[in-house]
């Protein structure tokens, strides 16, 4: 009895294997683009591409970045840090400065 069971199991496994292969081939064939009557494939025959999303660089999402003491805007590393002042406000301060060093 056990011998028979093992034989059936093996047959089933082989059958499943061929079935899987067949399904895979069918899937690939259905995915393949059929060449239209005009004789070539162009963009209008292809499915639309997923929309492009610009990845945000990690460094630009710095929540701990200092805020400008004047306009509360984010102050970047290349701007005045002590006190934190954005380039825009720094310019106003400098323009209004009457002292000449
Ligand atoms: Zn500012």
Concise synopsis of the structure shown:
With 101 residues, the chain is mainly alpha-helical. The protein is built from two helices and two strands; from the N terminus they run αββα. The model has no long low-confidence stretch (mean pLDDT 80).
How would you describe the overall organization of this protein?
Helices cover 40% and strands 4% of the residues. With 101 residues, it is mostly helical. Strand 1 (80-81) and strand 2 form a beta hairpin. The longest helix is centred in the N-terminal third of the chain and has 30 residues, at 2-31. The chain binds zinc ion. Zinc ion is lined by residues 68, 70-71, 73, 86, 88-89. Residues 68, 70-71, 73, 86, 88-89 line the site of zinc ion.
Mean pLDDT: 80
Distance between the termini: 104 Å
**Percent of residues in helical segments?**
25-40%
Outline the biggest β-sheet. Answer: 2 strands, antiparallel
Query: What sequence of helices (H) and strands (E) makes up the elements?
Result: HEEH
- Name the beta content range: under 5%
Rounded to the nearest angstrom, the radius of gyration is 34 Å
- Strand neighbour order, sheet with most strands: 1-2
